[in-house]
Design brief:
Layout: H1 7-20, H2 24-50, H3 55-62
Helix pairs in contact: 1-2
Length: about 80
């Protein structure tokens, strides 16, 4: 895989890799793996969080009649 990075990002990757004692390629691979893991963890979290959802109850809640007028500044345009 070839990745074109803006020069300023490339310089920063090289600097950070040097500080950590790894090659720029190792640094990018590690950063990429970290990002992929974060995205996968977030996706798994939201899948679990949605399991107890009750779409019918949500529709009921969203369609309820309001009990108070909007507070100043909260009016719909």
């Amino acid at each position: 895989m070839t990745i074109d990075l803006p020069e300023d990002v490339k310089r920063e990757v090289e600097r950070l890799a040097r500080e950590r004692g790894v090659s720029p390629e190792e640094f990018v691979a590690g950063a990429t793996a970290e990002k992929v893991g974060a995205i996968q963890s977030a996706a798994a979290y939201f899948v679990e969080r949605a399991k107890p959802a009750n779409p019918a109850r949500l529709r009921e809640f969203l369609n309820r009649e309001g009990g108070e007028p909007p507070r100043p500044g909260d009016e719909a345009d």
